[in-house]
Amino acid sequence: MKAGAYSNRDIFMQGYRHGIPIGLGYFAVAFSLGIAARDYGFSAFQGFFASLITYASAGQYMGFALYATNTTLAELVLLMFIINARYILMGFALNQRMPEGTPLRTRLLVGSCITDEIFGITIARPGVPTPYYTFGALIAAVPLWALGTALGITMGNILPARLVSALSVALFGMFIAVIIPPARKDKAVLGAVAVSFALSYASVHLPVVSGLSQGNRTILLTVIIASVFAALFPRETGDVSEGGETNED
């Protein structure tokens, strides 16, 4: 059945259902984030609210640490912008594929909803990306991220450290599950994924690149790999249909 046969509510609920496993992964990771936030002096309410409006794992870890060292607000904002700059690239990629005529306010709102995993399921969904799918996934996932942070602050001492560390692996397994299906269907995507894994590992050990922050390394690799594969394997405009399957489940 084509996407046009479904209402915006149906698409929103599909995104919501697909966002639940992401939220469960977020909950596990946010629990360990909450433990760090507690060590830096944050209350459960402060941690919950920070995660509810930010939902950026690496950025929040750094933000909590910098705040605890009395970093100025200007420095904190600048560093958060640098650490999370990769989301700007994701926003550009997603908005370029949205239907023509999508209002600017809607595009900006979609850009503010992006996380690595939500971007992954949105861009991998067949057909033209729709804001309602992204909104549904966000509504399902982010509250669990915020709740996990708050519980990590209040209950972090209850669970063994090894168990908390093991829980965080779930998010990486889930992200791999997002990229495997499109990689199996398209050899170019499979090649890009393989090259990304290899260069990401190598960048940690290379003399110059290893000195960059994780966020800047991600941006650099994204631009280089995407540019090379776009040049070698150009995708025709017609490859992404307006109607596309919805994979309704």
How would you characterize the overall build of this protein?
This protein is an all-alpha fold. Helices cover 72% and strands 0% of the residues. It has helices spanning 8-39, 44-54, 57-68, 73-83, 86-96, 104-112, 116-124, 131-155, 161-167, 169-185, 187-203, 214-232. Residues 238-247 have low confidence and may be disordered.
Please state the overall shape, judged from the principal axes of the Cα atoms.
Answer: globular
Q: Which parts are unreliable, with pLDDT below 50 for 5 consecutive residues or more?
A: 238-247
Question: What is the share of helical residues?
Answer: over 70%
Computed over alpha carbons, the radius of gyration is 19 Å
For the biggest sheet, the summary is: none
Count the strands? 0
Fraction in beta strands: under 5%
Protein topology:
Elements: H1 8-39, H2 44-54, H3 57-68, H4 73-83, H5 86-96, H6 104-112, H7 116-124, H8 131-155, H9 161-167, H10 169-185, H11 187-203, H12 214-232
Keywords:
single chain; 249 residues; mainly alpha; globular
Quick summary:
With 249 residues, the chain is mostly helical. It has twelve helices and no strands. 72% of the residues lie in helices and 0% in strands.
